[in-house]
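Practice problem: YYY membrane protein
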Amino acid sequence: MDTISIFLKIIFENIDFILPITIIFLLITSIGVVITLTLVNEDRWSLILPLGVAVGIFSFIIFLGTLSYFFKARPGILVILIIYILFGIFFYKKRKYKIPKIKFDRFFLKSFPIYFVISGLVAFLAGTTQYGGDVIAYWGFATSFANGNYPLRSPWQPDLLANHHQGTYLFEGAIHALTNADMMLIHTLYSIYIVLSGIFLIWAIVRKITKRDILSVVPALTVYFSFGAIFIPLLSVLRQYLHPEVEHIVTRLPLLLDAKNRLGGMSNLPDMIYINHRAAALLGFILVLYLIYTKLKVKGYWKPIIIAAFSVAIASSDEIYLPALVFMIGFWFIREMILKPKFRKATFTSFFLGTIIFIILFFLIGNALRDSMLTPPKEGTRFRIITSMESLLQRNESLKSAILRNSSDSSYFWFLPSVWVLGALALFLAISKRNYLVMLLFFATIGSFIAFFIVDHTFYATNNERFLSQLYQHLVFIISMSSLLLLKGKSRFLRLLAKLFLFVLVVPSIVFASVFIYKYAKKPAYNNLYGKISDDKVLLWLRTNKPKERVFFVDGFLWKTNDPYLTNHGIQNFGLFVPVAPADIKVHTPDFGVEAIDVINTLNPSEMKALKITYLYVLDNQVGRFPLKRQKDLENQDYFKKVYKDNFGSLYQVSKQYYEKGENMAGTISELSEILKGGNIFLDNPPNFNFYVRAALALELKDKENVYSVWGPGIFNYIETKIILKQPEDGISYDYIVVGPDLDPKAVCKCNEIVKIWEINQAVAYKVR
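Answer key — structure tokens:
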């Protein structure tokens, strides 16, 4: 009860923000329901509502992704919402159907407790889920879109297109623009919105097809709770006959998280709430799956066009679903051509029109693949197709089984079958029943399967692993739904087999995951539900007056603190352009590059010019650490014009004269590669360095052949260049040593004579003689 009280208390404290967001969600859902009822002949609200959510979200993303070229920032987003509402009103006025009545029937009475429990569990879980560092990027895209940043560019690299998942963050950015709520609350409520809609949509679809009221929830829970995991208890004597990929000791009931913990960052429900662009894309995928499966009320040639439009919006949220969509639509096209020979010409024409619409919208609506095509990296290509046997065999290792134990000497273990086994089982069950929706899903899985093996990201070696989560989710969706269909079959053997699959394999894993989710959701801390944005005055002033200017913050980072507070909050909560990343090399998240650290240390005009900084905010307590010459530069109004002052610091407009006449100072990372001429270079690693400093040093020295450093924290999460570090070993003779200022370099080289040749506040370089 204490947990519920805390949860409700936070809800009521933040109702001024939660209520407007909820109203907008309901408004978008209402329009989605109107469009849904225009498209499909359905009278069950258990199916209409989640369909309406999905249709509403992705149709609104299409509006945002196209109309934002003309209507920008907060006023523009309001105009787009009004146009969207008018679009919904038009469809409502032109309707040729009656609004279905809400039925309080037997199914409602039986299912309401399940709806209530699932909704409560997801809401509590979302409130307490811990978000990772990537939200700085996610929310930075959203808030900068609210400021008018479209086509979307990286706030930390304003010269470069985002090359990132966008659809979800266009949606969240629009909500932020309309409500001014904190992004954490918007992200959390949106996650609840799409996750619950996905669960209830699968439940409603499976219920309609299988005619099972309660058991039809099982496939939904396999996708969203257990993430497609099937764990089989086996005696330890059988261990010798198995060859798993991994064998782990766990202290809880088995989860996919413990067996396959690198599935592109999403192998459990808390991760899905955090990485909600993928949760949104999954909802969209289910929507398209059902729209292909069901008969639409519109004329036949409209169907491929509608599917094409939604597919682009889904790919905008997360392009990982594109292979599945392509193979599913391809199967649909071939089936139509075979089963309807008299209409082949019409079928081909409608699919051709759909393809044209897809291409047009693909290049209109912001998405990672489009940006990748328009802004290719300087070194190689981002994506490539790899078919070498070595690569195929290496990737096949990830498909192998896994073993989880409670202890090393336990008498039993939990066995997760390989993807190959699950695939064979799914194929057997799909063929046994030959349900159209199951076959569509199976061909979609083939698309994900092929992409897992052959798609390669040049600068992110394990990027293909995220397809693995799709494989588990899709395959066990097929297994559980086919089993439900077989329960009503004529074959006694198949009915028995279906019960075995459902109640011995699938349901236990749902129970295991539910226990994990329940314990996670019970944490009495729901910080994600606070809605008020921070009141940092300079950030508010900049968002109001200079939302598209490039501002840089000298806020004590790397001198008094290791937290770049104003930079992070300026990007993620206020959508400012803060160019801290490398000037000409694409990075995934706002990591500090060489130029940014040099600006922090020196305010050199060359580095500031490279980042195209137009405004500079300096804390009062940071001015004194600069040399007297630089302090005089700050007082020179021909160089820096003070435009804003608060209790903490001053904001300056940087003039062109400073870039033309200002003088550089020594003591920068950018000069280090010229100082270290060659030979073996030792580069220290955290905690002796701040990890941002180490990353910048590694980037500056990337063209040196022999840089020795332990690979780990302190290298860019994602950067479009090759940084090659060799592993330090005993016996290596180093010519140069780069360490933290407090470390004795002789502890590294065990040498007698060293000379300091370079120094900044955060690092020192020595030459070994």
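Discussion: The two ends are 69 Å apart (CA to CA). Students who identified this feature from the tokens alone can consider the problem solved.
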